[in-house]
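Task: fold both queries, return C-alpha cells.
Query 1:
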Amino acid sequence: MPAAKKTAQKAAQPTGRNTTRRPRNLYAYERSLIKAGLDPVAGADEAGRGACAGPLVVGACVLPAGRRGVVPELADSKLLTPAARERVYARVIERALAWSAVVIPASDVDRIGLHKANLEGMRRAVAGLAVRPAYVLTDGFPVAGIGAPGLAVWKGDRVAACIAAASVIAKVTRDRLMVAMHDEFPAYGFDEHKGYITPDHQDALLRHGPCGQHRRSFVNVRAAGGMIELTRLGVAEMGDNADVRDDLPAVNVPAELIEIPVEV
C-alpha cells in the first residue's frame, strides 16, 4: 500500500464514515491529509437548517496550505459575534484558494425536504469551487456523489479549519440575505432573528400569518397559516416534515447580496 494512502487512513476514517476524533488544533485534519498527498482539501457546511423562514445556504471553501491558510479568529461561525464573523469572512475570502456559496430557497426546502436539500447544496457548493479538491471534509454527515473522497466530521466546524471557513461563508451570506429580506417583510423581524424560531418571531407569525419566505414544512408555520392546529408543541418539535423529491433548482448566491453589509 502506498505510504500516502496509509497516512491518509491514519489521518481520517474511510469515506462515508463519521468520526468524533478531535485533532490537536483546528488545522490538524488538513495538514495530515496534505502530508498524505491529498491536496487541496475542501470543507463544506450549511447555515439555516433549523430556521423556519428564509433559505438554506451551503458554503464550501479551500484554504491554502501553510501560514497563509491560518485565518485569524477563525472558529465555528456560531461561536463568533456578528462583528467577528464579518472580519473572519473578509479574511477567508481574501485568503481562500477557492470558495462558493449556494442558496436554496425556502420553497425548495419544503418541496424536496430539508436533509436532501442540504446534501444537494453541499454537492453543488463543492462542484462550484474553482479548484478541484482532492479530499472533502463535511460537517456532521457523509455526502455521496460529492466528486472526491470525503469524511464526515462530527462538530466539524469546531475541529477543521476548512469546515469552519465554510460555516462562516454560509452564515454571513445567509445573514445578509435575511437582513435584506427584512425590507420586504418588516413585520417579522428577520434582521434580528434571521428566520429562527424565537418568541418574537412566533408572535409575529400568529399576528400576520406566514409570508412567502416561511417554510411550510415547519409545524409552527403550518399552524400559524391555519393549516393545522398547534397544540402542546415545544420548539424542539417544530422541525421539518417535508415531502421527499429528487429535483432541486438550487441557485448560486447573487453577488450583489454577498456584498450587502450585515448590521451588527
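Query 1 returned. Query 2:
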Amino acid sequence: MPATSNRTFEILGVPFDGAATLGWPGARYAPAKIRDALGWITMRTEKGLVYSLETGQLHSAPTIVDGGDANVIPHDLEATLTNTSQAIADIIGNNNVPIILGGDDSTLFSGSKGVHDGTTGIMGIIHFDAHLDVMDENEAQGAHSQSSGMRRSLELPRASADHSIQIGLRHFNFPSSQAYVSTAGPAQITAYEFDALGTDAAVAKILQRVAGADTVFLSFDIDAVDPAHAPGAGAHEPGGLTSRQAIDTVRALAPHCDALAVTEVNPLTDHRDMTSNLAAYLVYYFATFGA
C-alpha cells in the first residue's frame, strides 16, 4: 500500500535579493528556476502516486499548490519582509504548510516571523547555512539583511534559542558573532562535525535539540551545501555538506517540521541549473516525506 499524504504544501516565491549587500546578487531569479526544476520531478506522478527508488515503495504524490509570489517591493526591504511574513502566516491560517522559495537570506527572518505569527507556543528553528547570520547591525547592511536573519528571528517573542540549531557552519566569522552565540545563540553542528557524526547521528542531534518546540521552522540556505554540489549560491564556502547529505537530512527532518524555506539559490552563478535542481529536490523530499 502506498504511504498516504495528509498535509497540503503551499509554495510562496520571494523573488527578492535587495538585502544581498554581501556576496553576489541574483537570488531574485531563483523562485522561477526552482519551479521549473520541480516540474521535472512532479511529471513522474501517475494516478496520484510516485515511486521512491530509495524506499522501494509507492507514495501518494504530495499535494503541492502554488500560491504565487509574495508582494515584493524591490526598493523597500522592510515592506517586503512584512508582506512576506504576512503571506506565510496566511498560508498557515489556511491550514497549509508553507514552502518558501527565496530570494536572499533576509527570507530567514520573514519566514520565521510568518511562522511565528501564524502559530502559537514555542517556535524552534533549524537553520542550515555556512554562515551564522547573527549580525546585529552595521552601516553597510543595517539591521535586516542576509547576515542578520537568525539574530532577528531569535528576538521574536516565542522563538527559542534553546530549541534551535544551526548546521553546516564553517570557516571564519566576526569575533562579535562568537560573543553572541556563546551567550544567546542556538546550538551548532559545523560542517566538519556533521561529516564526523554522519547523517543519522546529526539528524538525531537536531531532533533532540528541537524536541519540545510546538512549531519547527526549517530554513535551508543553499550555501550549507559545498559549492562543488551547489555552485549557484550567494557565496562560495568550500567544505560543505554534500547533496546526498542535504537530501537525506531534509527527508528525515520533514515529518517534524511545519514550514520550509530554501534561500540563496543564485541562477546567475549556477552551472546548468544544477543548484536550482537540488533546491527542487529538497522541496519535493520535504513534501513527500513530510506529508
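Both queries returned. Flag for query 2: The radius of gyration is 17 Å.
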